[in-house]
Amino acid sequence: MKSKLSPHQLSLLVFMNILGTAIVFIPTIATTYGKENGWVSVVVAVLVGLILLMLYPSLIMNGKGNFFDRIEYQIGSIGAKALIVLLVLFGFFMTIGNIWSLSQFISVQILMGTPPEVIAYTITFVSLYAIRSGLEVIARSVEVFFLFTMMSLLLLAIFVWPETSFDHLLPIMQLNQTNAFVGAIPVLAITYVEVVILIALIPHVNDETKVRKSFLIGGALAGICMIVVTVATIAVIGVEATTHYTYSIYRLGQNIQIAEFFDRIEGIVAFIWFFTIFFKISTTFYILMISTQYLFKVNHQKVFSAPLALLLIAASKSSLPNIFYDFELMRSTYLTLSYLVMIIVVLSIGLSRLKRSNY
Amino acid sequence: MRILIIIAIVILAIRLDYKRFSGRDRKAFLIALSLATLYIIRAHNDTVWFNYVEWMDRLIDPISSHIDRWLMRYRS
Amino acid sequence: MRTQSDKKTQSIVHDQLSSCLKTNLTYIKEQLGHSTDLVVRHLHIGSKKNGMAICYLDGLVEKETIRDQFMSQVKRQAFSAKDPQKLKEEVENLITAVSAVEHVRLFNDLFKHLMAGDSILLIDQVKSGLIIDTKGGNSREIDMVTTQEVVRGPKEGFVERLESNIALVRRRLKDRNFWLKSYSIGTKTQTTVVIGYLNGIVNPDIVKEVEERLSRIKIDAILESGNIEEFIQDDMYSPFPTVYNSERPDAIAAGILEGKVAIFVDGTPFVLLVPTLFVDFLKSSEDYYQRSDISTMIRCLRVLAFFIALLTPSFYIAVTLFHQEMLPTTLLTSLAAQREGIPFPAFIEALIMEVTFELLREAGVRLPSSVGSAISIVGALVLGQAAVEAGIVSPMMVIVVSFTAISSFVFPSYNLAISIRMLRFVFMMLAASFGLYGIFTGFLLMVFHLASLRSFGIPYLFPLAPFSFSGQRDVFWRAPLAQSKERPHLLSQINTTKNQTEPSSKKEIDL
């Protein structure tokens, strides 16, 4: 095992992976279901998500060798292969989805007129550089950018504070109660459920006894951020607008006014999203790289890095025509896929683990 | 123009990686790279022979359509 | 006599000194190409004429030592021994009283010492020479530092002489664990390179690594510590320096105390320090001499200056080209009015101004100080007024460039300032093609690069990434000395306690 993560770095990676993509879409998704109680969906999702995060590490923890050795030990060579293929298919879907949604966000909101392909190219190559430098480098950079992300989030929360009117949140839990709880399902899908893929990083952690704790810390921190952002969005721009705008948090950023001089510094929001999603792309890309290395049994880790990058660009360009299709996917296909993968991974490894411990 | 960029990328990839690998690794790298190059060129001409997302969409449609219909009831 | 000596000349084999004085001297002269700075003085021993000779290179030796203490002594002494070996011992005893003495049997060693400024004493009929330590000659006096000036703190700086430099550090580290190890690098220059570290605090692996990298150097000339730096640094193609250099003995001593290894190179006042972290370039030794709150504020200023110097021109380009909506309306209108008559797009405008500024700065560095003021007048007029009035650049651009320039002078280290100067242009290009997104991407790439760097095995961004809580006491916040009790733990893992003082309790004095 060459590259090592500290528990601290792992929790930051978990944080980034939960928050990436989700932070921008969640207010919209949550309010589609729960309306003014959309934030309840997020709270429920966070609570359920934390239970899931407790579960994930126990699948892989306390084993010997790398991720693939451990899975093989648990469910046998053929089962492991099938599971990794599933993870690769899912990871590929996730990565192209993220690359494309970031490209579209930037080409629609920040760089008007630049074709999203150009953005997709640059993102993919920057993250190619990152993964080729190794997991350690990604982890260290996460530590640097966590600071920026948290600062931007804090600034956003502070700056929109004067604009909030909590009337938008009323009435609390009077209407649409079931909807609010059901809304937790799609919220979970793009946050806590899909990070099941991160179990591939657990064997890289240098102190495995702390893995569960770092999963929980990262998850809780991300959860708090999501709740704050959802509440703020509903309170500032209202339910109607939140449901209406694709990037409602960006709309929230446009409300910022500082000293009646700086307005429209929604760049802050772009900052948050850009960095979180970027690390999400890099992490899944890294997992894709090591998984393909395992599947095709090559010696060198980097063999498939460059071809994968080209494939990712091509697939994201050809598969996802526009942002509405993106949303449609997120609602049905992606949701189903991420739940399916999570359930299959947890059941297959978990059951065999239980069986083993019974003997 | 796009083709030129892709060719530049491929040449760069070969220059950086070709020497690093040997034997099976090198073969795997070359095969993967040429497949990826073909795929990306097709993607730019909008003549992809395999649309990953669509394929996945169709694959799990039996399940996802049910879930979608169920969720739809709670959407306002 | 003549025939005999000729025969002897031919008989110099295997680099061995011959027993004939004349042969040896001729050989030395021949080998040095009869260079004019070689001085050979013959001496009589008692009645025997030309029984001894001393040779040295003019200018490298301390003439007083040779004349007053050695020559006069030898002349005054009446040597009793007839046997050359005995005679040699007598001479040796005589010299030992005034100077260090060594024996030499090979010409190779003899030349090495001759070049280093030692004198060689040769006696007829003896097959070895005596080396007398007479190193000296002219060199610069210990002087004020010129590159890293401080308001408060020691003012003396290193000089070109290795011995004085080591002494300057040794005077600050009166510890027997301050160990030195000497190397001679460069086949032609034979430059003495000395590494110094605190045994028991330094990580032995780092010392081993430094030694290995130094011994790997195969080159003909080392003229400055920069030559060494290029060979021992971790990443050849990084814009960021991974080796720290300083002219200040107190900075080097402080580095050694943290568990770093200092590399002294003969002939330059700049001493290297490895391993080096990124944050080291944001620190000045004065930070530790001022009170902690002041230093903390100054450090935060430096971090701010880092971002300003790196990103201001690119932000200007990005905002004027792509993101006009981010500016407040009033500012936007005034900016638009300013830029009305400007023929260039913002990127070209910024490029022109930045390049002009870099040219001016480079010219200012090379010029003698008397002409330097002329340049600054020309610069101020050309950059400031004339260009604006001629309608080539907008006044806003002038402000941006001068702001950047001032910020880039804030860093205590010239190395980092150069990297920022280079990267600034990269960021400007990214901003011109992708706006803010380009800047973000460039910044990401830069951080990835920084995170992938290591200096002698230590991650370059430590203690920021990998994050170390105890390390934060000396990054942006310079903790009061009473609170910083440990050395940075990645550098030295053996003896980490540096301070056990209890913070002084607040005593009330009854008046």
Provide the fold topology.
The complex is a heterotrimer of chains A (359), B (76) and C (511).
Chain A: H1 7-19, H2 22-34, H3 38-60, H4 67-110, H5 116-133, H6 135-160, H7 177-182, H8 184-193, H9 211-244, H10 248-253, E1 257-258, E2 262-263, H11 267-295, H12 305-319, H13 323-331, H14 333-358
Antiparallel strand pairs in A: 1-2
Helix pairs in contact in A: 1-6, 1-9, 1-11, 2-3, 2-8, 2-9, 3-8, 3-9, 3-14, 4-5, 4-11, 4-12, 4-14, 5-6, 5-11, 5-12, 6-11, 8-14, 13-14
Chain B: H1 2-17, H2 24-44, H3 52-59, H4 61-72
Helix pairs in contact in B: 1-2
Chain C: H1 2-10, H2 21-31, E1 38-45, E2 48-57, H3 63-76, H4 84-96, E3 101-104, H5 107-116, E4 119-123, E5 129-132, H6 162-170, E6 178-185, E7 191-198, H7 204-216, H8 225-232, E8 244-246, H9 249-257, E9 261-265, E10 271-274, H10 292-321, H11 329-338, H12 346-366, H13 369-389, H14 395-408, H15 414-452, E11 454-455, E12 458-459
Antiparallel strand pairs in C: 1-2, 2-4, 3-5, 4-5, 6-7, 7-9, 8-10, 9-10, 11-12
- Would you list the SSEs of chain C in sequence order as H and E? HHEEHHEHEEHEEHHEHEEHHHHHHEE
Number of separate structural domains of chain C: 3
Termini separation of chain A comes to: 30 Å
Name of the CATH homologous superfamily of chain A? Hydantoin permease
Put simply, the count of helices of chain C is: 15
* Structural class computed from helices and strand pairing of chain A: mainly alpha
Number of strands of chain A: 2
What proportion of the residues of chain C is helical, as a percent range? 40-55%
Q: Give, in order, the helices and strands of chain A.
A: HHHHHHHHHHEEHHHH
Please name the CATH architecture of chain A: Orthogonal Bundle
Largest sheet of chain C: 5 strands, antiparallel
Number of contiguous helices of chain A: 14
